[in-house]
Each structure stands twice: as structure tokens, then as C-alpha cells.
Amino acid sequence: MNVQNIVVSKHIKRMYGLLSDGQRQTAGGYTTDNGIGQSDDTAAELYISDRMMHQRNVAAQISAEAQDEISILQIAEKRLVEENDALQKMEELARKAAFDNLSDAERREVADKSSKLIKEIDNISESTRFNELSPLNAGESDVDDASRKAGIGADKRLGPDARQTIDEMRKLFCGVFCDASSGNLGIGEIDLSTEKSSGRAVDLVREAKQQINVFQGSFAKEHERLEKVLRSLHGAETERTDRKNINDPESASEMLNNSKGAIIKHADKSVVAQANSAANGMMKLLQ
After folding, report:
1. For burial by CB atoms within 10 Å, which of 147, 180, 224, 262 has the most?
2. Model pTM?
């Protein structure tokens, strides 16, 4: 295409040069996934990416641990309710043995039912397990062993700090485990053979029920603490997502500006044609 108006063409060339420079600068600051567009920053970008991946892995592992522990607590809480129901039946039997006029045969039957309930309580305490942990039959060795397994079981890629965090978390969790066996509850040897001993049995069963309530309160408190851990992890992840979303509109704006620049740049032929047309019109008027 021939340009007849050299003044207009020089102006257009200058503007296109400025526009191209601006586009190159804009493109340099914008890369996919909000990356760093300069080669000098590649190492920093990789370091930040690795750190973020590490943090996500640690958060995922801690979240998995917390969810497992909540599952253990839910199972233990349900089993404590079953023990409490058994204690309620034992209290009714003890009251009957203490205040009702029972024959020897009836008293033996009541004592036999009470013994079966004691065995049921012990069975609940011993059989409640999750991932080799016994939340209702815990001793000092169980806590130490669980903490050791928590440290070994952690993903080695998470690093020593993450393993220590998970180890401490599991130690604190194991600290709320309880011994809900009949012996620890004080009802392992209750005697319903006489009215006097049955009256004492009523008091022992009541104390056992109070101890179950203490265990349930400890589990509920630990459950709440673990829920806070999960909410904190979820909040941190949401914050990272929000920061990414904040950057997205800026990226979209840059892309829009680039698109506008490309449209203007590709319109050069149209602008030059209009300039030539204007010059031709003036020449015709002068003729």
C-alpha cells in the first residue's frame, strides 16, 4: 500500500512503536498461573512453589490425622453410651436387691444378671479399637506406643517439623484416652448377695456413671479442639484461594489490555487507508 500523506504515516508509525513497547512490557509481567515472567526470578519461583507444595502436604497430613482422631472419638463416645446404659441396668438391679424382699433364687438371678452386665462393660472397653488404638482401655504404654507410631507413620517427605507436629498432636489426643473397664470404674466386684452389700453397690454404680460422664466430657472437649484444627486448616486454604482470586481480575485486566492493543495494531491498514483517502480528497478539492 502506498502512503501519500507522509505526516500522517510518520505519526502512525511512532504510535505503533510505543504501543508495541507497552505490549512487550505487559506480556513480560504476565505468565500462566501468575508466574514470574523474568528468567532471573526462575529460582525464586521454584523455591516458592516448593514451599507452597510442602505446606499443602503438611496441612493435608495434619487434616487426615485430625479426621482419623475424630472418627476414633465418635466410636468411643458411642461405646461409652452403651456402657452407661449397662450401668443404668446395673443400678436398677442393685436397687432391687437392696430394697425388695427377694427370695434366695431371685437374689441369685439378680446377681447373675449383674455379672453379665459387668462382662459386657469389660468387653466394650477391650473391643473398642481403631488403628491399633484403644480409647477405652488406655494405659501409659498405649499412649507412648501410639505416639511412636504416629512419628514413624508420618510421610518422610513432610520433613522433621511436620512429623514433630503430628507426633505432638497424637500425644495430646492419646492423653484423653480413658480406662472404662469395670475394675477402673469400681464395679468389678460388687456384691448383691445381701441387702446391705446391695445398698453399697447402688452407690458404686452411681459413682461409675459419674466417671463415665467425666470421660464423655473429655472426649467432647477433644472433639471440639480437633474441629478447630480442621477449621483453621480450611481457613488457611480458603485464604490462599482468595489471594489467588484477587490476582485473577488483575490478570484478566492485563489480558483485556493486550487484546485491545492487538486490535488497534491490526487496524493499521485501515488507519493508513483512511489517511490516504483524506489526502486524496484534499487534492481533488484543490484541482
Report:
1. 180
2. 0.63
